[in-house]
Amino acid sequence: MTIEILMPALSPTMTEGTLAKWHTGEGEKVAPGDIIAEIETDKATMEVEAVDGGTLSKILVPEGTAEVQVNQVIAVLLVDDEDSSALDAAVANAAKAKDDRATAEVVKPETQAATTSSSARAEATQPSSTQKPSGDKRMFVSPLARRLAAKAGLNLSLIRGSGPNGRIVKADVDAAVAAPAPARAPAPTKDADFELVPHTAMRKAIARRLTESKQTVPHFYLTVDCQIDQLLETRKELNSRSDAYKISVNDMIIKMCAQALIEVPAANAAWSEEGARYFKSADIAVAVAVPGGLITPIIRGAHGKGLRTISNEMKELVGRAREGKLKPEEYEGGTFSVSNLGMFRIREFAAVINPPQACILAVGAGEKRPVVTDGALGIATVMTCTLSVDHRVVDGAVGAEYLAALRSLIESPLSLML
Amino acid sequence: MAENNYDMVIVGGGPGGYVAAIRAAQLGMKTVVVESKHLGGICLNWGCIPTKALLRCSEINHLLLNLDMFGFSADNISFDIKKIVKRSRSVAGQLSDGVKHLLKKNKVEVYDGWGRLTGKAGVVAVEKNGKIIVELKGKHVILATGARARALPGMEADGKRIWTYMEAMVPESLPASLLVVGSGAIGVEFASFYRNLGSEVTIVEVLDRVLPVEDEEISKLAAKSFEKQGMTLITSAQVKALKVGSSSVAATIESNGKSNELTFERVIMAVGIVGNVENIGLENTKIKVNRGHITVNEWCETGEPGVYAIGDVVGPPWLAHKASHEGVICVEKIAGVNDVHPLDTSNIPGCTYCQPQVASVGMTEKAAKDAGHKVRVGRFPFAGSGKAVAMGDTEGMVKTVFDAETGELLGAHMIGAEVTEMIQGYGIAKTLETTEAELLHTIFAHPTISETMHESVLNAYGRAIHY
Question: Could you give the ipTM of this predicted complex?
Answer without folding.
Answer: 0.81
